[in-house]
Amino acid sequence: MPELIDSQKISGPSGQTVTVRFYDDRSIRVQVNGVGAMAISEAFLPVGKGKKDFVIVKLVPLQR
Predict the structure, then answer these.
(1) pTM (2 d.p.)
(2) Is 4 inside any structural domain?
């Protein structure tokens, strides 16, 4: 199991918070608090090892 290296909490509008956790295997986990069920509506996951590479994931409230 990967070991947690760092954790950062970010506060947004309406009391929403996002916690980003960084692990020693270079994985990243994102926890969104106080928003209810969410769905991934977009994901941009480029392939490459350059410093300008990035990942974008858009979460939206789940439509029931």
Answers:
(1) 0.73
(2) yes
